[in-house]
TrEMBL record:
GO function terms (MF aspect): sulfotransferase activity
Name of the gene encoding the protein in the UniProt record: LOC105871131
Pfam families reported in the protein's UniProt record: Sulfotransfer_1
GO cellular component terms attached to this protein's record: cytoplasm
EC number: 2.8.2.-
Broad class of enzyme this protein falls into: transferase
Name of the molecule in the record: Sulfotransferase
Keywords: Cytoplasm, Transferase
Signal peptide bounds: none
Family as reported in the entry's similarity comment: Belongs to the sulfotransferase 1 family.
InterPro entries: P-loop_NTPase (IPR027417), Sulfotransferase_dom (IPR000863)
């Protein structure tokens, strides 16, 4: 396999910073033509993408765990914008994937192939509390060396707040996909809701994709998609990726998977600064979105204001 030059600086595409290799994939994506029964899994990074991907693959395989062991998750659920030297791109993997296909993306709407929207491809979107995302993303930058050097936690947090990390602004991402959910077939889920009651959320997903499974199969899916089970499963924990690309000695890909773990990392000053910035950037947004992501209403939010 061709040696990947690690720690390359981001490249900007339409104002969005991306991993250098992924930026090279955006042009070819413009001509991507989805199949009618494709399902897109969309998230900002570190928001439960692998978790929901595994849930969906288990649903598609009727709860058969052995079938879900057929390949690592990034083969079973191709990563649309993935590109790296010497490795099949997301598009190439997709061509080899039998329908009905599950497709993963982190792209903001400005970079998403228009065909996915024109053809009304179903989307499952997952949003997660911004502070937990920031902490998880920092550790991911440290271990996944396709990213630029993250620097210190303090400097990374500043870049995250300014939208100067790969995939750009968290705020813009969750807001534009929330807005799209009013006009497009999008099931908008929250990481915290799945943690709180995974069975309820799996039932929502089943209904959205037009499938039904016996309760004992749903229970099995919930059991085998728990964080603990997925962390030790080489088909979901990314340990099959070469060590020089993802260094699990620095931080495991599946690290903690907790709600509110940001409290162990943020200083008081960082938290106050983040809260003030968050209040400004989320002002005027639908209370349903804001409250589910753990922000206290500042009085500026009103339902239906998206």
């Amino acid at each position: 396999m061709e040696q990947i030059q690690i720690r390359q600086p981001e490249e900007y595409v339409k104002g969005i910073p991306l991993i250098k290799f992924f930026a090279e994939a955006i042009g070819p994506l413009e001509s991507f033509q989805p199949l009618p029964d494709d399902l897109l899994i969309s998230t900002y990074p570190k928001s439960g993408t692998t978790w929901v991907s595994q849930i969906l693959d288990m649903i598609y395989q009727g709860g058969d765990l052995e079938k879900c062991h057929r390949a690592p998750i990034f083969i079973r659920v191709p990563f649309l914008e993935f590109k790296a030297p010497g490795i099949p791109s997301g598009l190439e993997t997709l061509k080899e994937t039998p329908a009905p296909r599950l497709i993963k993306t982190h792209l903001p709407l400005t970079l998403l192939p228009q065909s996915l929207l024109d053809k009304k491809i179903k989307v499952i979107y997952v949003a997660r509390n911004a502070k937990d995302v920031a902490v998880s993303y920092y550790h991911f930058y440290c271990m996944a060396k396709v990213h630029p050097d993250p620097g210190t936690w303090d400097s990374f947090l500043e870049k995250f707040m300014a939208g100067k990390v790969c995939y750009g602004s968290w705020y813009q991402h969750v807001q534009e996909w929330w807005k799209l959910s009013h006009t497009h077939p999008v099931l908008y889920l929250f990481y915290e809701d799945i943690k709180e009651n995974p069975k309820r959320e799996v039932q929502k997903i089943l209904e959205f994709v037009g499938r039904s499974l016996p309760e004992e199969i749903v229970d099995r899916i919930v059991q085998h998609t728990s964080f603990e089970e997925m962390k030790k499963n080489p088909m979901t924990n990314y340990t099959t990726i070469p060590h020089d690309i993802m260094d699990h000695d620095i931080s495991p890909f599946m690290r903690k998977g907790k709600v509110g773990d940001w409290k162990t990392t943020f200083t008081v000053a960082q938290n106050e600064c983040f809260d003030a910035d968050y209040a400004k950037k989320m002002a005027g947004w639908d209370l349903g979105l804001c409250s589910r992501l753990g922000v206290v209403s500042s009085g500026n939010h009103s339902r239906g204001s998206v």
